Structures are given as structure tokens and as C-alpha cells.
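Project channel, design review

CF: Before we commit to the Moellerella wisconsensis ATCC 35017 constructs, I'd like one complete example in the thread so the newer folks can see what an input/output pair looks like. Taking Probable Fe(2+)-trafficking protein.
RD: sounds good, go ahead.
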Amino acid sequence: MSRIIFCTFLQREAEGQDFQLYPGELGKKIFNEISKEAWSQWMSKQTMLINEKKLNTMNVDDRKLLEQEMEKFLFQGHDIKIDGYTPPEE
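CF: and here is what came back for Probable Fe(2+)-trafficking protein:
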């Protein structure tokens, strides 16, 4: 049986996760507030980020970066900028 939650990302009721996919408090928040559809959108963004920035998910700093981007994307409405170009610093 599917769980219906109010997805804070989509701003509507949607099917919730079947189980907690991420550890800790953040994982609980995702489980309670992020739908399968929103999580799937994040997963594709995350894949792009990992490829773009050549991240290693075994690396603590890379995981921290991904977690920050995930929080910004899912809870703060920030889209992930993936364009392969970083302007040179002035």
C-alpha cells in the first residue's frame, strides 16, 4: 500500500517513499516530506552533479557537497546548475 504525503518539493500530495532512503534527521525529513517523484528528480540531478564534478561518493567532502546540494534542491527551491563551465574568478 502506498503512503501519501504532502510533498514540500512539489507542493502537493504525492506518493511517499516506501522506507527511509537517507540516514539521520535529514533522512527522516526526506521520508516525511519528499515524494518518490521529487526524490527521482533529485537522483537524476545528483547523477549529473557526480559526473560533472567527477565526485567520488566514497569521499567525505564529496558526500558533504552532495548533501548540501540535495538540501538546497529539495527544501530551498534551488535548482542545480550543471553546465560544465565555471567562470574564472575576477
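RD: helpful, thanks. The mean pLDDT is 90.
CF: The chain is about 50% helix and 10% strand.
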